């Protein structure tokens, strides 16, 4: 049985902010959840141990419970140092038959493929460490002055995961005289005089330490992360028309001899756009959020519905990227009102008006639209995962 120990007990003092960085949102999900996900998806990992500060157990438990992971996940209390935290995680692993991987919670971008390669190398060699070439020229500096240039041809930076056969890692911890200065587990194995296989990382696997690192990781996920891919929503609506104005459309009151009939103000354009936004999130439709059996919404201003749909999107970490809508109506002519509708939609959705399109079509005298017995609208909205502030 192979176990991954994910060390998430750090306080992240270099990161700033009011919560430890492993709980900070990265493109719509906490960093820790993204990290656990990688090991949850990895076929060669059977069990996951998360090492967390004791006062954050409830928060970690909540994240795990709401994320629906497939594998068994145990939470263990962290220690005063990184190495003590790993040792505590190790004590939760009862089985000595497999490989133990140790991974920083702050490396959420690690690829499943690289995790598998570390497991394989640890199985074969006893100990393995994911590494990356050093690309900067390295200087030895003392008292603010460069003393020498270090030959970097043999230098690699040590990443995680690092993998070990369980027995070897236990011996390494048992033999270590002092854990205070130990920043990775490979160095404990080196201390035993044992070899550690270097496994070159095949994909971008930064440790998120600063706000800048977070923004780089977000940009990286924006290009490739499935949760950051845009979502398209589609909405339509239709209402009956009856004599007597005004007609409320796109939040604009249009002076004419017809009005749309409905429980609310029957604004088909705002209803179609709200449905498109809810649809992009697979969050039901306007009727499931604002029932037409609810007296609260009788004669309601439909701008409320659209504003609530936008607010829900924001809460879920989405923002609109563009909006295109079509109104089907025989009369009156909508051309004089289109710009005001666009500005209203831009205000409500937070979009630049240049990304809001409203078009109008007639029914050519045909059918319910053509005989001015109905008005309808359709809208397409694109949502994307909003950047964390
Ligand atoms: Mg409607």
The tally of strands reads 18
Average pLDDT, all residues: 92
Name every ligand kind in the structure.
Answer: magnesium ion
N- to C-terminal separation? Answer: 41 Å
Global shape = elongated
The structure class reads alpha/beta
Radius of gyration: 29 Å
Largest sheet: 7 strands, mixed
Major beta sheet, strand line-up: 5-4-1-6-10-7-11
Summarize the helix and strand pattern as letters: EEEHEHEHEHEEEEHHEHEEEEHHHEHEHE
Secondary structure: helix percent: 25-40%
Beta percentage is: 25-35%
* Parts with pLDDT < 50 across at least 5 consecutive residues: none
Number of helix segments?
A: 12
Keywords:
31% helix; 5-stranded mixed sheet; binds magnesium ion; 389 residues; 18 strands; 12 helices
Model description:
Helices cover 31% and strands 29% of the residues. The chain has helices at 31-40, 57-67, 82-91, 112-125, 166-175, 186-191, 211-224, 268-280, 286-289, 303-315, 338-349, 367-370; strands at 3-8, 25-26, 29-30, 47-52, 72-77, 99-104, 127-133, 138-142, 145-150, 156-165, 197-200, 231-243, 247-249, 252-254, 258-261, 318-328, 356-361, 374-385. The model has no long low-confidence stretch (mean pLDDT 92). The chain is α/β, with parallel strands linked by helices and 389 residues long. It is built from 12 helices and 18 strands. The structure holds magnesium ion (MG). Residues 237, 239, 262, 268, 271 line the site of magnesium ion.
């Amino acid at each position: 049985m192979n176990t991954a120990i994910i060390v998430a007990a750090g306080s992240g003092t270099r990161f700033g902010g009011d919560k430890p960085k492993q709980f900070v949102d990265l493109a719509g999900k906490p960093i820790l959840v993204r990290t656990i996900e990688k090991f949850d998806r990895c076929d060669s990992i059977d069990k996951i141990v998360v090492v967390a500060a004791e006062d954050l157990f409830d928060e970690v438990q909540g994240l795990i419970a709401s994320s629906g992971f497939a594998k068994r996940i145990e939470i263990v209390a962290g220690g005063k140092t990184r190495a003590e935290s790993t040792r505590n995680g190790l004590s939760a692993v009862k089985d000595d038959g497999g490989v133990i991987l140790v991974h920083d919670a702050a490396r959420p971008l690690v690829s499943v493929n690289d995790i598998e390669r570390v497991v394989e190398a640890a199985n074969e060699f006893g100990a393995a460490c994911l590494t990356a070439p050093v690309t900067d020229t390295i200087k030895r500096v003392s008292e603010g002055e460069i003393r020498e240039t270090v030959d970097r041809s043999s230098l690699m930076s040590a990443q995680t995961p690092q993998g070990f056969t369980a027995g070897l890692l236990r011996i390494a911890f048992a033999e270590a005289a002092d854990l205070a200065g130990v920043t990775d587990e490979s160095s404990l194995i080196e201390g035993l005089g044992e070899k550690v296989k270097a496994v070159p990382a095949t994909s971008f696997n930064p440790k998120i330490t600063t706000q800048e690192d977070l923004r780089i990781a977000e940009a990286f996920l924006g290009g490739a992360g499935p949760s950051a891919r845009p979502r398209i929503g589609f909405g339509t609506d239709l209402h009956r028309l009856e004599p007597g104005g005004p007609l409320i459309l796109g939040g604009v009151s249009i002076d004419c001899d017809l009005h749309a009939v409905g429980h609310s103000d029957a604004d088909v354009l705002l209803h179609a756009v709200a449905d498109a936004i809810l649809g992009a999130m697979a969050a039901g439709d306007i009727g499931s959020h604002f029932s037409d059996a609810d007296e609260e919404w009788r004669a309601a201003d439909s701008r409320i519905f659209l504003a609530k749909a936008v607010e829900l999107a924001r809460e879920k970490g989405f923002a609109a990227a563009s909006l295109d809508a079509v109104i089907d109506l025989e009369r009156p002519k909508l051309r004089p009102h289109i710009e005001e509708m666009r500005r209203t939609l831009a205000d409500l959705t937070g979009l630049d008006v240049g990304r809001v399109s409203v078009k109008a079509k007639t029914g050519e005298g045909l059918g319910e639209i053509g005989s001015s017995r109905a008005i309808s609208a359709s809208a397409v909205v694109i949502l994307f995962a909003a950047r964390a502030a």
